[in-house]
Description:
The structure is a single chain. By secondary structure, the chain is an alpha+beta fold. The protein has a single domain, classed as Glutaredoxin, CATH 3.40.30.10. The chain is built from five helices and six strands; from the N terminus they run ααβαβαββββα. It has helices at 2-6, 8-13, 26-34, 46-52, 91-103; strands spanning 20-21, 40-41, 56-57, 62-63, 66-70, 76-81. It is globular. The protein starts with a helix and ends with a helix.
Amino acid sequence: MAAFEEKQSELQALGVSVVAGSVDTGDHAREVADSVSFPVAQGVTRETADALGSWWEERRNIVQPTEFVLRRDGGIVNASYSDGPLARTDPDDVCTLVNFLKKA
């Protein structure tokens, strides 16, 4: 989330809204949400992860990163499913994709 916070002004200039979700709840969730300027939903459950097609890690009881770039009408332009720290969506790539789509 920190990388998206660093690029927030550029993303906003492109008309991109960032929304995040976390399995955390309570004080820890507020601490995470307070560190960024975009909304962070808390308490993501296994059922939500399953509905998104995400990988749920049983050992730590967490959802692994699942990232979507959506059109204004809600259609999916890009989806990224991770099962670890690699291959996460980069905010620079989101900017590149949005600029490409604006020219198309």
